[in-house]
Specification:
The complex is a heterodimer of chains A (204) and B (183). Chain A is of the alpha+beta class and 204 residues long. Chain A has 4 helices and 10 strands; from the N terminus they run αβαααβββββββββ. In chain A, strands 2, 5, 8, 9 and 10 form a 5-stranded antiparallel β-sheet that branches. Chain A has a 4-stranded antiparallel β-sheet with strand order 3-4-7-6. The chains are: A alpha+beta (204), B mainly alpha (183).
């Protein structure tokens, strides 16, 4: 009788039991495709603590605008748009890289211009930048900042009322539309853009 | 690239729910075997295993040590197996035909099942559920008692006693044809 089995566990000290255990250790045949599809169907449909966890990370926060930022925003736009509101774009459940938080006004500058928070989930990216007609599509102009956890990148940007086209640039090269926003027609440079509309309530 | 459990858990928690499929694939077969041996039939085993994976996903953010996701998931599965008796009783009342369902866990054709395998299955089913669980974790899943304690929430000395008694009863049933119910 063996003193130790191959795993180093205590032997059973009984030949019959060892034969039974050998039988019980036989691999089981599982229809992987069928089983995995059933599990993942429930996983992707069901409300989950995981999604709540991600959504908490993505939830817009109220920020305090420093006088310097307010001044910069005022100089940048030089137009008073007090009372502007942002149409909140349709969101959808987070699904990893490319997932975007809803665009929300998180503050207003001194002139009342809305400051919009952009969020993008890219757990494996080394950089994410926001490009759009509001920054001349310059990938260096508006880098997003990574949260300490969650792979969530975000930035707050003053946005004038009107329709804007924008996109995210991941790792300096990969052009990604905002998954939570409508894709714009009439794409620039052959790359897909997203559309964002900021409306002044006085114009409605 | 083969990602660790901890890395996959991290990716799922960052919102890539689809990555959970890789954890399912990693533990599916082994834990299906455990569930089948615990519950004795593929319908209950499949239901318990599927339930465990889904519950695992829903509470993944509470997995304290993602590197030990496997043990954490097995604890959920063991718990589901313990409570499966009530579900089985309710299902039997509904009298759902086994032929109406497509099973993912396949058994060999009944004609292929040896008398020896049936005898082992009968012996296992006659063990007290706590003893069966301890026996399977120790001798089929090759776990150390400390790991078993984490999975079951039961102290090491109590687990050793359960394994000892399970081995004694299994040996008697398999060699002497003891047929008395457990306890």
């Amino acid at each position: 009788m063996r003193q130790h089995d191959e795993t180093g566990n205590t032997p059973l000290a009984d030949e019959t039991l060892e034969r039974a255990v050998g039988e019980l250790r036989r691999p089981l045949r599982v229809n992987a495709a069928l089983f995995d599809a059933r599990v993942m169907d429930e996983v992707l449909r069901a409300p989950s603590g995981v999604r709540e966890h991600v959504e908490r990370l993505l939830r817009p926060r109220t920020i305090r605008v420093s006088p310097l930022l307010a001044l910069a925003a005022g100089m940048l736009f030089a137009v008073s748009v007090a009372g502007s509101i942002l149409y909140v774009l349709p969101g959808r459940a987070p699904r990893g890289e490319g997932t975007s938080a809803e665009r929300s006004v998180v503050a207003r500058d001194a002139a009342g211009s809305p400051i919009v928070q952009f969020g993008f989930v890219a757990p494996h990216a080394s950089s994410v930048a926001l490009v759009g007609d509001f920054n001349n599509w310059d990938p260096k102009a508006t880098p997003l900042h990574a949260a300490s956890t969650g792979g969530v990148w975000s930035v707050e940007v003053p946005i004038l009322p009107g329709r804007h086209l924008y996109a995210f640039v991941v790792d300096g090269t990969v052009w990604r539309p905002d998954p939570a926003a409508p894709q714009a027609t009439g794409e620039d440079f052959g790359e897909p853009n997203s559309a964002l509309t900021v409306a002044d309530p006085g114009m409605r | 690239m083969e990602l660790s459990d901890a890395a996959l858990v991290d990716i799922v928690l960052k919102g890539e729910s689809e990555a959970y499929a890789r954890l399912v694939a990693r533990y599916r077969d082994r834990y299906a075997r455990f569930a089948l041996h615990m519950l004795g039939n593929r319908e209950d085993a499949e239901e318990a295993l599927q339930d465990a994976f889904v519950r695992g996903y829903r509470s993944l953010h509470r997995c304290g040590d993602p590197a030990r996701f496997g043990s954490w998931l097995l604890a959920i599965l063991a718990n589901r197996c313990r409570t499966a008796g009530g579900r089985r009783a309710r299902r039997e009342k509904r009298f759902v035909s086994a032929e109406d369902r497509h099973y993912a866990i396949a058994l060999d054709h009944p004609a292929d099942a040896s008398a020896w395998r049936e005898e082992i299955g009968r012996a296992l089913s006659r063990l007290d559920a706590d003893q069966r669980e301890a026996f399977l974790l120790k001798h089929v899943e090759d776990m150390e008692y400390e790991q078993m304690s984490v999975v079951t929430g039961v102290g090491v000395s109590a687990l050793k006693m359960r394994v000892k008694r399970a081995c004694e009863r299994m040996r008697r049933m398999l060699t002497e044809g003891e047929d008395a119910p457990a306890r």
